[in-house]
Amino acid sequence: MKFIYFTSGILEGSGFPLKDGMTVGRAPENNVVIKDNFVSKLHSAFSERSGDMYLIDKKSHNGIFVNNLKYRVKRLHPGDRIKIGKNIFIYYEGEEDLLNREYELFKTDKKVHVKDELLKIAEFHEKYLKIFYRIISPYLQSKDSNLFWKTLKDIIYRFNIENFLLARIKDNKLEKTDIMTSFYDKAPQIKPEIIEILKQEQVVTLVRGVKSIKLREYLLLYPYQRGGKYYVWVLGRFVQGEMDQEDLNQLYFTGLILSFLK
Question: What is the pTM of this model?
Answer without folding.
Answer: 0.65
